[in-house]
Amino acid sequence: MTQNSTPQSLEAPSKPQRLRSEATIAALVFAVLTLLPALADGYVVYILPQYMTFGVLAMSLALLWGFTGILSFGQAGFFAIGGYAVGLLMSAQLPINGFYLGLLAAALSGAVIAGLIGYFLFSAGVRDAYFVLVTLALSIVVEQIAVSQSQWTGGWNGMFLMRPTLTFFGLSFELFDDLTVYYAVLIFVLLAYVALYRFTRSSLGKIVVGIRENEVRMVSLGVSSTFYKTLVFSVSAVVACLAGSVYAVHSGFVSPSLGGVLFSTEVVVWVAIAGRTSLIGALLGGIIVSSLSNFLSAVTPAYWQLVIGLIFILAIAYFRGGVAGAIERFFSKPFKGAA
Amino acid sequence: MLPVIDILVDATLITLVLMLAASGLAVIFGLIGVINMGHGAMMTLGAYFTWAATSAGIPFPVAVIIAALGVGAVGLLLEHFLIRHFYDRPFETLLLTWGFFLVATEAIKIVFGTDFRNVTNPLPGTIGIFGLELPTYRALVALLSVLLMLGIGFLYKKTNLGLTVRALIQNREVASLMGLDVSKLYKQVFVFGAFLAGLAGALISPMLSIDPYIGNVYLVRSFFVVTLGGLGQLVQGTLIGSFVIGGSETLFALATSQVFAQTIVFVLAVVLLRFFPRGILSARS
After folding, report:
1. A144 interaction partners in chain B (CB closer than 8 Å)
2. Mutation test of the interface with chain B: which of A119, A131, A141, choosing the one with the most B Cβ atoms within 10 A?
3. Per-residue buried b or exposed e for A288-323, using 16+ beta carbons within 10 Å of the residue's own CB
4. Would the CB atoms of B99 and A124 count as touching at under 8 Å?
């Protein structure tokens, strides 16, 4: 697989500039998200957290696709697993807070499933297309299990859950009020972004980019590419599962279609359009494209999906870095000449 | 009739239909290395074209041919305007054909709507062969599938066209230096694969209710068939792959539910891929 969309991130001169610009944009985005409830009306405050969890899902894919060069069509499968894990544990009458246990279970199940699949496939040298297919199969399986095991999942009717009460150091927050939920989700998004950002900037992240650029060279340098690819896949799955848990708690509802092929595809489309090598780009892409989708699908349901498909083809064929890549190229032109 | 024989007959029919569904993918994937994620959408298109043609009063066999040719034409457009520019980047063709899937599915929804459609079974009833009662139409499709596979094998191994295609797979540069029109061959193979996908969709259409997503299930199964069988092993590979996927699914479905059977088969396919990453046949040779 040829991945030459971000050669600039490997070159010394432009790196600090790129770093600064990404951090600035991230600060700006989170500032806007923090202040938004003061300006916007009730519906925006109610619905935006849902799209923010989609944004986190998009970031989990960007980590995998943009930074490691592995495309997964199964991220929505993990999203759904996270949602059902929280739903099941919250509906079971447990002595401890089911929500915390649910988050833990979601993260664990994501790590274990992704670890197993990743180990099996990566150690066999399975890559690119085969991996896409297996992850596609994963999301089909998740959807089918959710439909068929209706005694636990509610089948097609889905599963309803209550918003939980969180307790921190003796303080308790009831997540009933939309504004409280909004900030709770925002904190989750911020934590997810910072964690993923730190991950990509760490030495681990550099190894992963090295595997993307030239796997044979990294292996001959003594790096176990199987281990690191499995690790990144697991991290990405954990993030996707947690995003699914938060989504489930926010919307109070989980349905099988969350894990389905269509939703999996949508995630890939958001990330391809927004730009796969920028975390903040993926976050924004997830938020903006999914909210636009929802809004426009109410206006012109059929044609909007068609347009999304066409934009996806254009993004793949002509704009490999997506919108984020195009903007970056535009601003970095004076410094780099023909980029 | 003994239940064991009943099960075997059922498994054989499912296997052969699956082989038909996978043939178009095997041709495109195996010969020119394009992972056609639009394969499912092409099958769906074939089914809808058949439905449209039969509802317009065209007899079923003619409708099937029209549908297959129609999907072949769609494949030609797709190849000419998009895919041919990306043959040296297989992963991009995967994403582009996925984009085709998205667009084609939405176009189907706009033109035909999302309701279930049904194509009347042209050969209802059963037929007795060697004392077995077989559903006539499914038996015919299974037979056609076998004939088609034999035909493809003959084309590939015994004709001049097959020889040039094999030369192309072996060494693209040398084939091109020897004066073969490589881009024309790629185009022919891609369009033939699309034609086969359309044909499969058309022939399968009377067996189930048609909705815009029927191709999806076949897409993933067909991929497992082709990868398990081994790339480039057109006839034997596709047959063995279909047997593993289709046969085991039928057997597991007896013990548990249909859904669990599918899950087990997917897991089995992943595990088999671990040990035969290049396909069962390639690993042996």
Report:
1. 259, 262-263
2. A141
3. bbbbebeeeeeeeeeebbbebbebbbebbeebbbbb
4. no
**What is d(CA A301, CA B106) in angstroms, rounded to the nearest whole number?**
10
pLDDT over 80 at B19, yes or no: yes
Question: Could you tell me if residue A222 is inside a domain?
Answer: yes
User: Per-residue pLDDT tens for B242-256?
Assistant: 888 888 888 887 777
- pLDDT single digits (tens) B114-140: 788 888 888 787 877 777 778 888 889
pLDDT exceeds 50 at position A11: no
DSSP state at residue A337 = S
Task: Dihedral sign for Cα A316, A317, A322, A328, please.
Answer: positive
Give me the pLDDT at residue A232, please.
93
| Structural domain count of chain A | 1
Residues of B in Cβ contact (< 8 Å) with A71: 91, 95
B82 at the A interface (CB within 8 A)?
yes
Q: Read off the pLDDT band of A19 (50, 70, 90).
A: low
Model pLDDT, residue B164? 87
On whether any CB of chain B is under 8 Å from the CB of A92, the answer is no
Question: Cβ of A257 under 8 Å from any chain B Cβ?
Answer: no
Residues with Cβ within 8 Å of B285's Cβ and at least 6 positions away in sequence, in order, are none
Identify the pLDDT of residue B285. Answer: 40
The predicted pLDDT at position B167 comes to 85
**CATH number of the structural domain spanning residue A208:** 1.10.3470
* A312 in contact with chain B, both atoms CB, cutoff 8 A: yes
Provide the whole-model pTM. Answer: 0.83
Task: Please provide residue A81's backbone torsions phi and psi, each rounded to the nearest 5 degrees.
Answer: -60, -45
B103 closest CB neighbour out of A2, A123, A310: A310
Is the residue at A2 inside a domain? no
Residue of chain B nearest A125, judged by CA positions: B277
Residue A144: closest C-alpha in chain B: B259
Q: Which two tokens stand for residue A7?
A: 């050669």
Question: A259 pLDDT band (50/70/90 cuts)?
Answer: confident
Strand runs (DSSP E) across chain B, as ranges? Answer: 126-129, 132-135
Domain extent at residue A282: 7-336
A54, pLDDT greater than 90 = yes
Confidence bin at A17 (pLDDT 50/70/90): low
φ, ψ (nearest 5 deg) of residue B210: -90, 125
Task: Locate A200 and state its tokens.
Answer: 């990509």
CB contact under 8 A, A121 and B35: no
DSSP-derived secondary structure letter, B133: E
Which distant-in-sequence residues (6+ apart) come within 8 Å of A148 by Cβ? A155, B257, B259, B260
Instruction: Please judge whether A309 and B106 are an interchain contact, meaning their C-beta atoms are less than 8 angstroms apart.
Output: yes
Looking at every residue in chain B, the average pLDDT score rounds to 85
3-state secondary structure B74-122: HHHHHHHHCHHHHCCCHHHHHHHHHHHHHHHHHHHHHHHCCCCECCCCC
Residue-range domain boundaries for chain B: 3-215
Angle (CA) A211 A216 A220, round 5°: 105
Q: Is residue A1 part of a domain?
A: no
CB contact under 8 A, B98 and A268: yes
